[in-house]
Amino acid sequence: MLNRRNFLTAAVGVAAATSLAACAKKDDGGGSTGGGDGKIVLGFSQVGSESGWRSANTDSVKSAAKEAGYDLKFSDAQQKQENQISAIRNYITQGVDVIAFSPVVVTGWDAVLKEAKAKKIPVVLTDRSVETSDQSLFVTLVGSDFTDEGRRAGKILEKVLEKAGHKGAVKIAQLEGTTGAAPAIERAKGFKEVMDAEHASDWKIVVSQTGDFTRAGGKQVMAAFLQSNPDINVLFAHNDDMAIGAIQAIEAAGKKPGKDILIVSIDGVKDGFVAMSEGKINAIVECNPLLGPQLMEVVKKVKNGESVERWIKTKEGDFMQDQAKAALPTRKY
Question: Which of 117, 266, 270, 290 is deepest in the core (most CB within 10 A)?
């Protein structure tokens, strides 16, 4: 995965990756042939449709591709890596100009990415990064810094606790994203960095489990959390959908979300802002899903052999409960 510590290592692969992009239309061995009508042919494999964030991300990619005049080949992996690998191989067979995908999990991509490289088809990662043995197997990542989102969640929890006038031990339940997925790994890591560095004596994660980024998962897991640890007073959810599901479980247990259990989540979907405006979520760290326009710009540059940054980050903000009502009408997803 890309992070601040291995960024210099990743940069070594930039020259090779850029060379790969420049060769995308020059394969003599059955590689990328592109569209016969001159359109850029983009093969895009989406991780799934597990959340409101993901739906907004898919809509952004589709609408931006249409506006750019690209021939978009789209597939939904339904959160299964084998489906995604199959889709990428299908794009390689079709000889698309560029392949883009949001990986289900971090590892296990080397073989299929080497197949794309052999056919001189450049690969762009969106939203999530991967771990590879060869950094030149993909050209760039368009997406968020998940580790920093975790840190931001830790810092905003400090504000939430102060605003609530909380004293004493902070007993945290953590709803993790899909096991092995980059945002789940990195958001947990960033949050723990803040906790260990600044709150080792008073914050403790008493229970942590995946809710698979879904509302149903968040509700089910939170219900189990409350049975095993009824004294939980903070919930850190890796996305809004799990937080919304957890709210249902908290209310079913006779507790008040946002008061009895303070809630910090990540994403910033409209339903999350609704819950925040109702006082049920205390703070949200934004993760912007509207990557489509940025992705199409990058695809065009890569197709034309132009150099691009190794990591193209999205612009995001953080929101406290008292900002929710004013911000809600402007939310686009």
Answer: 266
